[in-house]
Design brief:
The chain is built from twelve helices and nine strands. It has 313 residues and is mostly helical.
């Protein structure tokens, strides 16, 4: 709000100077001059936006998934390192094997044998480089309730309109099946990604009392994290670009608003979005003896082959 007030005052001063120096300007001419000045201002890079202009940031915050500018979002040639896409492949193959559908559990979940098959994929993913007990891993579980990444994938597949549940069975939509048979699993990469950043509820897995909807900023965060890999630095950049976020996170005796935002960014964005997709890996260790470890996201080839920001160079 302070920044907006300052800009309004600057614009008013400019308008006053223009009128004083050009008293014979008509209203239409004055409006044209001010429009040009506003266009220049809105296309000027800002340090607080890490060099983006207000117009660029506006597109990233409010543009639809198919209208995003200054970034090329592509389907990678190799999806083997993406847990989400590998799990989706298992779900689709299970439906095909069952003639277009398969039975859900009594709770409406994916069958245990599918969870077992998905768990067996863990050693092939980059995240397996970290010594994680399978019993607490989000990439393995005896059933869907204990397997967060698989549950996430099933929800996205439903949101994206690939599968649906009816009469105790999971069905693959006929149109989706036709696409799969013609183009393979890759055809669902962008629809699944769009569902993840526009319609999936990022708060779903946690019970954090105070929160903000980080989906609005997802592309800005991808850009920044891909450039430096530091979750700590990303948190600082988010606070600088969007200081009002801290107003939505009242601090307490244990955690400041800045720390709360950092926690949300790491859990909801880095771990349960980027890591589920195979875009990054994050070391689960927070301490090395008495030393606090920096929060680092190890950028994976899948991320750089999906998001190309070279247009910003």
């Amino acid at each position: 709000m302070n920044s907006q007030s300052k800009q309004t005052a600057q614009i008013a001063d400019e308008l006053e100077q223009i009128v004083a120096m050009n008293p014979n300007l008509s209203l239409d001419e004055l409006e044209l001059v001010m429009q040009r000045k506003m266009d220049l201002r809105n296309n000027q890079s800002l340090d607080e936006f890490c060099g983006l202009s207000p117009n660029q940031m506006s597109n990233w915050l409010s543009g639809s998934f198919t209208q995003l500018q200054w970034v090329n979002i592509a389907t990678p040639e190799d999806l083997c390192q993406s847990p989400v896409m590998r799990y989706l492949g298992l779900i689709i193959d299970e439906a095909i094997e069952g003639g277009g559908s398969f039975k859900a559990t009594a709770k409406g979940n994916l069958p245990a044998k599918l969870a077992k098959s998905a768990s067996a994929l863990l050693p092939g993913f980059a995240i397996s480089a970290f010594d994680i007990n399978p019993s607490i891993s989000e990439f393995a579980g005896s059933n869907e309730d204990k397997f967060n990444a698989l549950h996430y994938t099933r929800i996205l597949a439903e949101i994206a309109g690939i599968i649906y549940r009816r009469s105790g069975r999971f069905h693959i939509k006929k149109a989706a099946l036709a696409q799969y048979e013609k183009q393979g699993l890759a055809v669902f990469f962008l629809p699944m990604l769009e569902a993840a950043v526009t319609r999936y509820n990022w708060e779903y897995f946690d019970i954090i009392e105070h929160d903000v909807d980080l989906r609005l900023f997802w592309l800005f965060m991808v850009w920044r994290l891909q450039s430096h890999g530091s979750i700590d630095q990303l948190n600082d950049e988010m606070i600088t670009a969007f200081p009002d976020l801290l107003r939505q996170l009242p601090g307490d005796n244990y955690c400041s608003p800045e720390q709360q935002l950092s926690m949300l960014i790491e859990i909801r964005f880095a771990l349960r979005f980027l890591q589920y997709w195979g875009f990054v890996t994050v070391d689960p260790r927070r301490y090395d003896g008495q030393k606090t470890l920096p929060r680092v996201a190890n950028i994976q080839p899948l991320m750089t082959s999906t998001f190309d920001f070279s247009a910003l160079a």
